[in-house]
Specification:
Distance between the termini: 40 Å
Number of strands: 14
Bound molecules: adenosine monophosphate
Helix content: 40-55%
Shape: globular
Number of helices: 17
Largest sheet: 7 strands, parallel
Strand content: 5-15%
Structural class: alpha/beta
Strand order of the largest sheet: 3-4-2-5-6-1-7
Length: 423
Protein backbone atom coordinates (compact mmCIF):
# COMPACT_ATOMS: atom_id res chain seq x y z
CA UNK A 1 0.00 0.00 0.00
CA UNK A 2 1.33 3.43 -0.90
CA UNK A 3 0.48 6.86 0.50
CA UNK A 4 -0.89 7.76 -2.96
CA UNK A 5 -3.55 5.08 -2.84
CA UNK A 6 -4.67 5.92 0.69
CA UNK A 7 -6.63 8.96 -0.44
CA UNK A 8 -4.47 11.87 0.76
CA UNK A 9 -4.28 15.25 -0.97
CA UNK A 10 -1.31 16.50 -3.02
CA UNK A 11 -0.35 18.99 -0.27
CA UNK A 12 -0.04 16.19 2.29
CA UNK A 13 1.75 13.83 -0.11
CA UNK A 14 4.32 16.57 -0.74
CA UNK A 15 4.97 16.95 3.02
CA UNK A 16 5.17 13.17 3.48
CA UNK A 17 7.71 12.86 0.72
CA UNK A 18 9.69 15.77 2.21
CA UNK A 19 9.81 13.79 5.48
CA UNK A 20 11.26 10.88 3.52
CA UNK A 21 8.47 8.41 4.24
CA UNK A 22 8.09 5.95 1.40
CA UNK A 23 5.15 3.90 2.60
CA UNK A 24 2.57 4.07 5.37
CA UNK A 25 3.15 2.04 8.55
CA UNK A 26 0.57 -0.67 9.42
CA UNK A 27 -1.36 1.58 11.82
CA UNK A 28 -1.48 4.29 9.14
CA UNK A 29 -2.80 1.83 6.55
CA UNK A 30 -5.55 0.78 8.94
CA UNK A 31 -6.43 4.08 10.58
CA UNK A 32 -6.19 6.71 7.83
CA UNK A 33 -9.04 5.44 5.57
CA UNK A 34 -11.31 4.87 8.58
CA UNK A 35 -10.72 8.36 9.94
CA UNK A 36 -11.28 9.85 6.48
CA UNK A 37 -14.61 8.00 6.30
CA UNK A 38 -15.73 9.79 9.49
CA UNK A 39 -15.88 6.76 11.82
CA UNK A 40 -14.95 6.88 15.50
CA UNK A 41 -11.79 4.91 16.19
CA UNK A 42 -10.35 2.90 19.06
CA UNK A 43 -6.69 2.29 18.27
CA UNK A 44 -4.23 0.12 20.11
CA UNK A 45 -0.90 1.66 19.20
CA UNK A 46 2.16 2.47 21.17
CA UNK A 47 4.58 5.21 20.38
CA UNK A 48 7.03 4.31 17.60
CA UNK A 49 4.39 2.84 15.31
CA UNK A 50 3.76 6.05 13.38
CA UNK A 51 0.46 6.61 15.19
CA UNK A 52 0.77 10.41 15.20
CA UNK A 53 0.78 10.62 11.40
CA UNK A 54 -1.99 8.00 11.55
CA UNK A 55 -4.36 10.59 12.98
CA UNK A 56 -2.67 13.87 11.95
CA UNK A 57 -2.76 13.20 8.20
CA UNK A 58 -6.49 12.40 7.92
CA UNK A 59 -7.40 15.28 10.27
CA UNK A 60 -5.38 17.73 8.15
CA UNK A 61 -6.99 16.30 5.03
CA UNK A 62 -10.53 16.66 6.37
CA UNK A 63 -10.08 20.18 7.72
CA UNK A 64 -8.30 21.49 4.65
CA UNK A 65 -11.04 20.20 2.34
CA UNK A 66 -13.75 22.15 4.20
CA UNK A 67 -14.71 25.62 2.99
CA UNK A 68 -12.94 28.26 5.08
CA UNK A 69 -14.82 29.83 7.99
CA UNK A 70 -15.01 33.58 8.42
CA UNK A 71 -12.86 33.26 11.51
CA UNK A 72 -10.56 30.36 12.33
CA UNK A 73 -12.07 28.17 15.03
CA UNK A 74 -10.65 25.17 16.85
CA UNK A 75 -11.99 22.33 14.70
CA UNK A 76 -9.75 19.58 15.99
CA UNK A 77 -8.63 19.08 19.58
CA UNK A 78 -5.85 16.67 20.51
CA UNK A 79 -5.37 15.89 24.19
CA UNK A 80 -2.09 14.41 25.37
CA UNK A 81 -0.85 13.45 28.84
CA UNK A 82 2.48 15.31 28.84
CA UNK A 83 3.93 18.58 27.65
CA UNK A 84 6.63 16.86 25.65
CA UNK A 85 4.17 14.73 23.76
CA UNK A 86 1.97 17.78 23.13
CA UNK A 87 4.96 19.66 21.70
CA UNK A 88 5.91 16.75 19.47
CA UNK A 89 2.42 16.15 18.17
CA UNK A 90 2.23 19.87 17.35
CA UNK A 91 5.53 19.74 15.45
CA UNK A 92 4.22 16.76 13.49
CA UNK A 93 0.98 18.56 12.60
CA UNK A 94 2.97 21.60 11.49
CA UNK A 95 5.30 19.55 9.33
CA UNK A 96 2.61 17.41 7.71
CA UNK A 97 0.40 20.48 7.25
CA UNK A 98 3.10 22.83 5.94
CA UNK A 99 1.59 22.98 2.44
CA UNK A 100 -1.97 23.52 3.69
CA UNK A 101 -3.52 26.71 5.03
CA UNK A 102 -4.20 25.21 8.47
CA UNK A 103 -2.84 26.57 11.74
CA UNK A 104 -1.86 24.37 14.67
CA UNK A 105 -0.89 25.50 18.13
CA UNK A 106 -0.19 23.96 21.50
CA UNK A 107 -1.04 24.80 25.09
CA UNK A 108 0.45 23.15 28.16
CA UNK A 109 1.20 24.08 31.74
CA UNK A 110 4.50 24.94 33.37
CA UNK A 111 5.18 27.90 31.10
CA UNK A 112 3.84 31.46 30.84
CA UNK A 113 0.28 31.36 29.44
CA UNK A 114 0.37 34.79 27.75
CA UNK A 115 2.05 33.78 24.47
CA UNK A 116 -0.38 30.83 24.26
CA UNK A 117 -3.32 33.18 24.81
CA UNK A 118 -2.08 35.59 22.13
CA UNK A 119 -1.74 32.79 19.55
CA UNK A 120 -5.15 31.37 20.41
CA UNK A 121 -6.76 34.78 20.02
CA UNK A 122 -5.36 35.03 16.48
CA UNK A 123 -7.35 31.90 15.62
CA UNK A 124 -6.24 28.29 15.14
CA UNK A 125 -7.71 25.25 13.39
CA UNK A 126 -5.98 22.52 15.38
CA UNK A 127 -5.27 22.72 19.09
CA UNK A 128 -2.98 20.28 20.88
CA UNK A 129 -3.17 20.46 24.66
CA UNK A 130 -2.62 18.89 28.03
CA UNK A 131 -5.90 18.81 29.95
CA UNK A 132 -5.11 21.12 32.87
CA UNK A 133 -3.92 24.19 30.93
CA UNK A 134 -6.64 23.67 28.33
CA UNK A 135 -9.32 23.90 31.03
CA UNK A 136 -7.64 26.94 32.63
CA UNK A 137 -7.65 28.87 29.36
CA UNK A 138 -11.10 27.67 28.39
CA UNK A 139 -12.46 28.86 31.73
CA UNK A 140 -10.90 32.24 30.96
CA UNK A 141 -12.90 32.22 27.69
CA UNK A 142 -9.77 32.60 25.58
CA UNK A 143 -11.26 30.30 22.92
CA UNK A 144 -14.33 28.24 22.27
CA UNK A 145 -14.59 24.49 21.86
CA UNK A 146 -18.03 24.62 20.29
CA UNK A 147 -16.76 24.04 16.73
CA UNK A 148 -14.66 20.94 17.43
CA UNK A 149 -15.28 18.32 14.76
CA UNK A 150 -12.56 15.80 15.60
CA UNK A 151 -11.34 14.94 19.10
CA UNK A 152 -8.23 12.83 19.72
CA UNK A 153 -7.25 11.33 23.07
CA UNK A 154 -3.62 10.37 22.58
CA UNK A 155 -2.02 7.91 25.00
CA UNK A 156 -5.32 7.72 26.82
CA UNK A 157 -4.07 5.01 29.21
CA UNK A 158 -1.36 7.33 30.47
CA UNK A 159 -3.82 10.19 30.87
CA UNK A 160 -5.88 8.03 33.18
CA UNK A 161 -2.76 6.90 35.07
CA UNK A 162 -1.93 10.54 35.63
CA UNK A 163 -5.33 11.30 37.11
CA UNK A 164 -6.78 13.28 34.20
CA UNK A 165 -10.14 11.49 34.04
CA UNK A 166 -12.09 14.31 35.71
CA UNK A 167 -10.46 16.91 33.48
CA UNK A 168 -11.22 14.85 30.38
CA UNK A 169 -14.86 14.57 31.41
CA UNK A 170 -15.07 18.34 31.93
CA UNK A 171 -13.57 18.91 28.47
CA UNK A 172 -15.93 16.41 26.83
CA UNK A 173 -18.86 18.33 28.30
CA UNK A 174 -17.75 21.46 26.41
CA UNK A 175 -17.64 19.81 22.99
CA UNK A 176 -20.44 19.65 20.44
CA UNK A 177 -22.38 16.37 20.61
CA UNK A 178 -21.88 15.69 16.92
CA UNK A 179 -18.18 15.06 16.40
CA UNK A 180 -15.70 12.35 15.50
CA UNK A 181 -13.75 10.74 18.35
CA UNK A 182 -10.41 8.96 18.13
CA UNK A 183 -8.86 7.20 21.11
CA UNK A 184 -5.26 5.95 21.03
CA UNK A 185 -3.92 3.83 23.84
CA UNK A 186 -1.00 1.44 24.25
CA UNK A 187 -2.89 -0.80 26.64
CA UNK A 188 -6.54 -1.62 27.21
CA UNK A 189 -7.34 -1.68 30.89
CA UNK A 190 -10.86 -1.86 32.27
CA UNK A 191 -10.78 1.91 32.83
CA UNK A 192 -9.86 2.60 29.20
CA UNK A 193 -12.63 0.34 27.97
CA UNK A 194 -15.05 2.15 30.27
CA UNK A 195 -13.94 5.56 29.00
CA UNK A 196 -14.14 4.35 25.39
CA UNK A 197 -17.65 2.99 26.01
CA UNK A 198 -18.71 6.38 27.35
CA UNK A 199 -17.81 8.58 24.44
CA UNK A 200 -16.96 6.57 21.30
CA UNK A 201 -19.89 5.84 18.99
CA UNK A 202 -19.75 2.50 17.20
CA UNK A 203 -15.95 2.70 16.87
CA UNK A 204 -13.78 0.76 14.45
CA UNK A 205 -11.01 -1.03 16.33
CA UNK A 206 -7.50 -1.03 14.91
CA UNK A 207 -4.33 -2.54 16.31
CA UNK A 208 -0.78 -1.60 15.37
CA UNK A 209 0.87 -4.57 17.06
CA UNK A 210 -0.79 -7.29 19.09
CA UNK A 211 -1.61 -5.91 22.53
CA UNK A 212 1.29 -5.96 24.97
CA UNK A 213 3.84 -7.54 22.69
CA UNK A 214 7.10 -5.77 22.09
CA UNK A 215 8.60 -4.94 18.72
CA UNK A 216 10.28 -8.00 17.24
CA UNK A 217 13.26 -5.98 16.16
CA UNK A 218 14.23 -5.19 19.77
CA UNK A 219 16.78 -7.47 21.48
CA UNK A 220 15.87 -7.70 25.14
CA UNK A 221 18.53 -8.70 27.65
CA UNK A 222 18.54 -8.86 31.43
CA UNK A 223 21.74 -8.39 33.45
CA UNK A 224 21.26 -9.56 37.01
CA UNK A 225 23.47 -7.83 39.54
CA UNK A 226 23.52 -6.22 42.99
CA UNK A 227 21.87 -2.86 43.56
CA UNK A 228 25.17 -1.36 44.63
CA UNK A 229 26.83 -2.39 41.35
CA UNK A 230 24.21 -1.03 38.98
CA UNK A 231 25.82 2.33 38.23
CA UNK A 232 29.18 0.72 37.57
CA UNK A 233 27.58 -1.82 35.26
CA UNK A 234 25.68 0.84 33.29
CA UNK A 235 28.87 2.88 32.96
CA UNK A 236 30.75 -0.19 31.75
CA UNK A 237 28.10 -1.14 29.18
CA UNK A 238 27.97 2.37 27.75
CA UNK A 239 31.74 2.85 27.70
CA UNK A 240 32.75 -0.62 26.47
CA UNK A 241 29.99 -0.63 23.85
CA UNK A 242 30.89 2.91 22.68
CA UNK A 243 27.16 3.72 22.85
CA UNK A 244 26.51 7.30 21.89
CA UNK A 245 22.76 7.72 22.39
CA UNK A 246 21.30 5.93 25.36
CA UNK A 247 17.99 6.42 27.13
CA UNK A 248 18.05 5.19 30.73
CA UNK A 249 14.94 4.74 32.85
CA UNK A 250 14.79 5.10 36.59
CA UNK A 251 11.78 4.69 38.82
CA UNK A 252 12.08 7.98 40.68
CA UNK A 253 13.03 11.58 40.04
CA UNK A 254 15.74 11.46 42.72
CA UNK A 255 17.07 8.26 41.20
CA UNK A 256 17.28 10.00 37.81
CA UNK A 257 19.20 12.95 39.27
CA UNK A 258 21.56 10.72 41.24
CA UNK A 259 22.37 8.50 38.29
CA UNK A 260 22.89 11.45 35.96
CA UNK A 261 25.36 12.98 38.43
CA UNK A 262 27.26 9.71 38.81
CA UNK A 263 27.48 9.23 35.04
CA UNK A 264 28.82 12.77 34.79
CA UNK A 265 31.53 11.93 37.30
CA UNK A 266 32.44 8.89 35.18
CA UNK A 267 32.91 11.20 32.17
CA UNK A 268 29.63 10.37 30.44
CA UNK A 269 27.68 13.50 29.56
CA UNK A 270 24.11 13.02 30.64
CA UNK A 271 20.96 14.92 31.59
CA UNK A 272 18.01 13.90 33.73
CA UNK A 273 14.45 14.67 32.75
CA UNK A 274 11.47 14.38 35.05
CA UNK A 275 8.50 16.32 36.34
CA UNK A 276 10.53 18.47 38.75
CA UNK A 277 12.61 19.96 35.93
CA UNK A 278 11.39 23.18 34.33
CA UNK A 279 9.95 22.95 30.87
CA UNK A 280 12.98 24.81 29.51
CA UNK A 281 15.40 22.34 31.09
CA UNK A 282 13.45 19.36 29.75
CA UNK A 283 13.31 20.77 26.23
CA UNK A 284 17.01 21.60 26.26
CA UNK A 285 17.96 18.14 27.51
CA UNK A 286 15.88 16.49 24.82
CA UNK A 287 17.28 18.73 22.07
CA UNK A 288 20.83 18.00 23.22
CA UNK A 289 20.07 14.30 23.23
CA UNK A 290 18.64 14.42 19.71
CA UNK A 291 21.58 16.48 18.42
CA UNK A 292 24.09 14.16 20.07
CA UNK A 293 25.60 16.62 22.54
CA UNK A 294 23.96 14.75 25.44
CA UNK A 295 25.05 11.12 25.38
CA UNK A 296 22.68 9.71 27.98
CA UNK A 297 19.20 10.88 28.86
CA UNK A 298 18.03 9.61 32.24
CA UNK A 299 14.27 9.73 32.51
CA UNK A 300 11.30 8.68 34.61
CA UNK A 301 8.46 6.87 32.85
CA UNK A 302 6.10 9.78 32.59
CA UNK A 303 8.72 12.30 31.50
CA UNK A 304 9.83 9.99 28.71
CA UNK A 305 6.39 9.09 27.57
CA UNK A 306 5.83 9.78 23.90
CA UNK A 307 9.22 11.34 23.22
CA UNK A 308 9.93 11.24 19.53
CA UNK A 309 13.49 10.03 19.24
CA UNK A 310 13.86 8.27 15.92
CA UNK A 311 16.17 5.25 15.58
CA UNK A 312 17.12 5.01 19.23
CA UNK A 313 19.65 2.20 19.45
CA UNK A 314 19.85 1.60 23.23
CA UNK A 315 17.41 1.70 26.09
CA UNK A 316 18.47 0.71 29.59
CA UNK A 317 16.12 -0.03 32.45
CA UNK A 318 18.24 0.96 35.43
CA UNK A 319 15.35 -0.30 37.51
CA UNK A 320 12.48 -2.39 36.29
CA UNK A 321 9.10 -0.70 36.42
CA UNK A 322 6.65 -2.22 38.91
CA UNK A 323 3.87 -1.97 36.32
CA UNK A 324 4.65 -4.53 33.57
CA UNK A 325 2.95 -2.42 30.87
CA UNK A 326 5.47 0.37 31.56
CA UNK A 327 8.22 -1.99 30.44
CA UNK A 328 6.48 -2.30 27.08
CA UNK A 329 6.23 1.50 26.82
CA UNK A 330 9.86 1.96 27.74
CA UNK A 331 11.27 -0.40 25.20
CA UNK A 332 8.87 1.04 22.64
CA UNK A 333 11.56 3.73 22.24
CA UNK A 334 13.79 1.27 20.41
CA UNK A 335 13.17 -0.31 17.03
CA UNK A 336 11.02 2.60 16.01
CA UNK A 337 9.32 2.41 12.59
CA UNK A 338 11.10 -0.83 11.72
CA UNK A 339 14.64 -0.06 12.89
CA UNK A 340 16.48 -2.42 15.25
CA UNK A 341 17.44 -1.72 18.85
CA UNK A 342 18.60 -3.17 22.14
CA UNK A 343 16.72 -3.00 25.43
CA UNK A 344 18.73 -3.84 28.51
CA UNK A 345 17.41 -4.31 32.02
CA UNK A 346 19.64 -4.19 35.08
CA UNK A 347 17.86 -6.28 37.66
CA UNK A 348 18.64 -6.72 41.35
CA UNK A 349 17.29 -9.43 43.62
CA UNK A 350 14.38 -7.32 44.88
CA UNK A 351 13.19 -6.88 41.29
CA UNK A 352 13.04 -10.54 40.32
CA UNK A 353 9.27 -10.53 40.89
CA UNK A 354 8.87 -7.52 38.58
CA UNK A 355 10.78 -9.45 35.95
CA UNK A 356 8.39 -12.39 36.37
CA UNK A 357 5.41 -10.04 35.94
CA UNK A 358 6.90 -8.63 32.74
CA UNK A 359 7.66 -12.08 31.36
CA UNK A 360 4.10 -13.15 32.11
CA UNK A 361 2.77 -10.15 30.21
CA UNK A 362 5.10 -10.78 27.26
CA UNK A 363 4.43 -14.51 27.32
CA UNK A 364 8.12 -15.39 27.22
CA UNK A 365 11.28 -15.46 29.29
CA UNK A 366 13.83 -12.69 28.84
CA UNK A 367 17.40 -13.69 28.02
CA UNK A 368 19.52 -13.35 31.16
CA UNK A 369 23.28 -12.65 31.22
CA UNK A 370 25.87 -12.12 33.94
CA UNK A 371 29.04 -10.10 33.46
CA UNK A 372 32.03 -11.40 35.46
CA UNK A 373 32.55 -9.20 38.50
CA UNK A 374 28.88 -8.19 38.54
CA UNK A 375 27.30 -11.40 39.84
CA UNK A 376 24.42 -11.24 42.33
CA UNK A 377 25.73 -11.63 45.87
CA UNK A 378 23.05 -9.85 47.92
CA UNK A 379 20.07 -11.77 49.28
CA UNK A 380 16.56 -10.40 49.26
CA UNK A 381 16.67 -10.20 53.05
CA UNK A 382 19.79 -8.02 52.94
CA UNK A 383 18.27 -5.68 50.36
CA UNK A 384 15.05 -5.35 52.35
CA UNK A 385 16.98 -4.66 55.56
CA UNK A 386 18.91 -1.90 53.77
CA UNK A 387 15.69 -0.39 52.44
CA UNK A 388 14.17 -0.34 55.93
CA UNK A 389 17.27 1.29 57.35
CA UNK A 390 17.23 3.96 54.60
CA UNK A 391 13.55 4.60 55.14
CA UNK A 392 14.05 5.09 58.87
CA UNK A 393 16.95 7.46 58.20
CA UNK A 394 14.85 9.49 55.70
CA UNK A 395 11.98 9.71 58.16
CA UNK A 396 14.33 10.98 60.84
CA UNK A 397 15.68 13.54 58.36
CA UNK A 398 12.15 14.70 57.46
CA UNK A 399 11.15 14.99 61.10
CA UNK A 400 14.21 17.07 61.79
CA UNK A 401 13.56 19.39 58.86
CA UNK A 402 9.91 19.80 59.98
CA UNK A 403 11.17 20.73 63.39
CA UNK A 404 13.25 23.36 61.60
CA UNK A 405 10.04 24.77 60.09
CA UNK A 406 10.61 23.34 56.60
CA UNK A 407 7.34 21.46 56.33
CA UNK A 408 5.89 21.05 52.84
CA UNK A 409 2.25 20.74 51.75
CA UNK A 410 2.94 17.09 50.93
CA UNK A 411 -0.13 15.69 52.53
CA UNK A 412 -2.56 18.22 51.15
CA UNK A 413 -4.99 16.96 48.55
CA UNK A 414 -3.67 19.33 45.88
CA UNK A 415 -0.07 18.59 46.70
CA UNK A 416 -0.68 14.91 46.09
CA UNK A 417 -2.52 15.54 42.88
CA UNK A 418 0.09 17.73 41.29
CA UNK A 419 2.87 15.37 42.38
CA UNK A 420 1.14 12.48 40.68
CA UNK A 421 0.94 14.43 37.45
CA UNK A 422 4.51 15.54 37.44
CA UNK A 423 6.25 12.22 38.08
P1 LIG B 1 5.07 7.94 16.42
O1 LIG B 1 4.63 6.53 16.67
O2 LIG B 1 3.96 8.79 15.92
O3 LIG B 1 5.76 8.51 17.63
O4 LIG B 1 6.15 7.93 15.23
C1 LIG B 1 7.38 7.28 15.37
C2 LIG B 1 8.40 7.72 14.36
O5 LIG B 1 8.10 7.18 13.07
C3 LIG B 1 8.49 9.22 14.15
O6 LIG B 1 9.86 9.56 14.17
C4 LIG B 1 7.90 9.49 12.80
O7 LIG B 1 8.50 10.60 12.18
C5 LIG B 1 8.21 8.19 12.07
N1 LIG B 1 7.23 7.83 11.02
C6 LIG B 1 5.89 8.02 11.03
N2 LIG B 1 5.32 7.54 9.90
C7 LIG B 1 6.32 7.01 9.16
C8 LIG B 1 6.38 6.36 7.89
N3 LIG B 1 5.29 6.13 7.17
N4 LIG B 1 7.59 5.95 7.44
C9 LIG B 1 8.72 6.17 8.18
N5 LIG B 1 8.73 6.78 9.39
C10 LIG B 1 7.55 7.19 9.88
Amino acid sequence: MSFNSIGLSAALLKAISKKGYTEPTPIQVKAIPQILSGRDLLASAQTGTGKTAGFALPILQKLSSESPMQRRRVRSLILTPTRELAAQVTDDFKQYGQFTDLRTTVVFGGVNANPQIRTLKQGVDILVATPGRLLDLHNQKVFSLSHVEVLVLDEADRMLDMGFLRDIEKILAQLPVKRQNLLFSATFSKEIKKLAGKFLKNPVMVKATPENTTAETVDQIVYRTDKSKKTKLVTKLITDGGWEQVLVFTRTKHGANRLSQKLGKAGIHSKAIHGNKSQGARTMALEGFKKGTVRVLVATDIAARGLDIPLLPHVINYELPNIPEDYVHRIGRTGRAGAGGEAISIVSVDEFDYQKGIEKLLGRTLESKVIPGFEVTETLQEVNDKKLANKAQNQRGRRNSRDDGNSSPKNSKNGNRSRRRRR
